[in-house]
Design brief:
Blueprint: H1 5-26, H2 33-84, H3 92-100, E1 120-121, E2 124-125, E3 134-137, E4 150-154, E5 169-170
Antiparallel strand pairs: 1-2, 3-4, 4-5
Amino acid sequence: MSRSKPHRLWERASRSQGMNRRASAAWPRAFSLVELLVVIAILGILASLVTAGAQAARRRAAVTKARTTVAGIETAIVMYQGDLGQYPSSGNDNLVKALQEDPGKTDWNGPYFDFKQDDLKDGKLIDPWGKPYEYISVNGGAPQHRTHSFDLYSLGPNGLDEQGAGDDVINW
């Protein structure tokens, strides 16, 4: 029995495809240089996005910490004034002493604020950016914004006094 010509062509074609399949299976699949560069570029982009997001979150956290500290100290100052009838003397170090140390007066019901040692530097309360908070009271100073009580503020991330504008963290 003889085979027809088209049938022999089909056998030859299927044998050659089978050999190609076997030959390609014997070689391990590897990444090309272009594929590796694309993957590295994608990873670099993702890393930069994560880093930028983390820095923005850190900045927001520092601003929130400064606002919370200003609000807490503001409450402590009001309690101090309610007990003693006057505000602590102007100046960051005077404020820290007044809210923590007993002046020997019978009306003093403090300490009014518990400062963490990490937040103090040379007896002054420092903000998250390493600068001292500014405190000016009617008792020993002249507040510009709350003229009958006190001004309490941080100069913010840039460390520049912008009179309560920009990135300053203020109590007025």
